[in-house]
């Protein structure tokens, strides 16, 4: 996966865009901004919530699927 890929968060069944990729303690984390406007309980990001995900939590959708 790469920046700006459209992905689906499996557990939440939410579609969004990868807006940041980082490595913490040897594990790659993807910050996904929801495509749906509106708050989600327990999530940051205001109108478009942000989700901190690992690779196994998300899958690429649409063009560029791996």
Q: Can you write the helix and strand succession as a string?
A: EEEEE
Strands, count: 5
- What is the first-to-last residue Cα distance? 8 Å
Based on CA inertia axes, which overall geometry fits?
A: globular
Mean pLDDT: 88
Summarize the structure in words.
The protein is mostly beta strands. It is 0% helix and 47% strand. It contains no helices and five strands. The protein has a five-stranded antiparallel β-sheet with strand order 4-3-2-1-5, with no helix packed on it. Strand 1 and strand 2 form a beta hairpin. The chain is globular and about 30 Å long.
Briefly characterize the structure.
With about 70 residues, the protein is mainly beta. It contains no helices and 5 strands. The protein has a 5-stranded antiparallel sheet with strand order 4-3-2-1-5, with no helix packed on it.
Topology:
Blueprint: E1 6-9, E2 14-24, E3 27-34, E4 50-54, E5 58-60
Antiparallel strand pairs: 1-2, 1-5, 2-3, 3-4
Descriptive terms for the model:
mainly beta; globular; 66 residues
